[in-house]
Amino acid sequence: MNTTQTKAQSLLAPVLGMAVIGLTLLFAVGHAQSATLHDAAHDMRHATGFPCH
Amino acid sequence: MFQKMMTGALIAGISAGLLAAVLHFAFIQNYILLGEQYETGELVHFAAPEAAPAAPEGADHSHAEAASEAHDHGAHEHGDGDVSPFQRNALTVGFTVLLYVAYGIMLTVGFAIAAQFGKRITATEGALWGLAGFAAFQLAPGMGLAPELPGSAAADLAARQVWWWSTVVATGLGIAAMAYGRSVITTLAGAALIAAPHVVGAPLLDGFYGYAPTEVGAIFSSRVLGVGLAVWVALGWLAGRQWARGEGGGAAA
After folding, report:
1. What pLDDT score was predicted for residue B57?
2. Is the pLDDT score of A10 beyond 90?
3. Does any domain span residue B174?
4. Domain ranges, residue B72
5. Nearest CA in chain A to B169
6. Would you say residue B195 lies in a domain?
7. Is B196 within the bounds of a domain?
8. Does residue B22 form part of some domain?
C-alpha cells in the first residue's frame, strides 16, 4: 500500500507534465489559428477532422 | 519515468504518424485537391454532365455562373499561393506526425492513469484504447462536424472548436466510465456523457453552401474516418507495446 502511494506521487509530476505537453501540442497543430500555422497544417487538419476555417 | 514514458509515446506517435502520412497520400490528398478546385471555381459542379472533374471549360451554365460569382465568399484565403507542392506535402507529413505524437502522449498519459488503478496495459489493450481514442477524437466530433472537404462552408470556427473539445472530453470520459466502471450507474453515466454533445448539437449553418459534388464530400469523409481508424488502432497497439516493455508493464506484472 505504502509503495503504491509513493509510486503514485512519483508519477504525478511526469504524468501531469506529459498531459500538458500533449494538450499544448494538440492545440498547436490542430486548433491554433495563426495564419502560418493554419496554412502549414491545413491539409492535415482537413484530413483528420479538425474544424479548419 | 518521464523520459521512459515520453520515449514510448514518441516512438508510437512517430510511427503511427508516418503510417498516417502514407495513408493520407494514398486515400485523401487527391480529394483535398479536388475540393480546392471546386472551392476556387476552377471546377464547377454540373459544368460537364458526364465527367465533372474532366472539363471545366465551356461551362456557360446558369448554375456555373452563380457558383463562380459566389466565389468571392472569402471563407478563407490560403496565405501564399506560391508554396511548392513538395513543401506543402512535406508540411503535411510533418504536422501529421506531430498530431499523432500528441495523441500518443495523451494515450500514454491515459495508460499511466489506468495503471494507477491496477490495469495492466498490453499491446492488445492498447489497440482497444486506440479504438476508443478514434471514437473520442474523430468519430464522435465527426458526427456533428463532418470532416470538412475544402470548399465546404461551416459555422463559426470558435464555436465549432469549443464543441469539438467538449465532445472529445465528454466522449473520452464516457468511454472510460463504461469500459472501467463497475456499476450500472457508471455505465449509464458514461452513456449519458457520450450522448450529451449530440443532444446539445454541433454549431451548424442554416443552409448548405458547399461547391463540390456531394459524392466528393461523402467519399472524403468516409476515407478520413477509415484512415483515422486504422492509424488510431496502430497507434494504440504501438503505444501499448511500448508501455508494456517499459516501466508500466514491469510494475504491473
Report:
1. 47
2. no
3. no
4. 2-154+205-252
5. A23
6. no
7. no
8. yes
Here the cell at position B72 is 468571392
Yes or no, beta carbons of A26 and B99 under 8 Å apart: yes
For chain A, which residues lie within 8 Å of any Cβ of chain B, measuring from their own Cβ?
Answer: 7-8, 10-11, 13-15, 17-19, 21-23, 25-26, 29-31, 33, 35-36, 38-53
- How many residues does this entry show for chain B? 253
pLDDT of residue B170: 98
Which residues of chain B are under the pLDDT cut of 50?
A: 52, 54-76, 79, 248-253
Q: Would you put residue B74 in left (φ > 0), alpha (ψ -120 to 50) or beta? A: left
Q: What whole-number distance in Å separates Cα of residue B100 and Cα of residue B147?
A: 17
Best to test chain A binding among B77, B105, B166 (most A CBs inside 10 Å): B105
DSSP one-letter code for B147: P
Per-residue model confidence (pLDDT) at position B47: 65
CB B150 within 8 Å of CB B37: no
What one-character DSSP code corresponds to residue B121?
P
DSSP H helical segments within A1-53, as ranges? Answer: 2-30, 35-47
pLDDT tens, B62-115?
444 444 444 444 444 554 557 899 999 999 999 999 999 999 999 999 999 999
Residue type, position B36, single letter: E
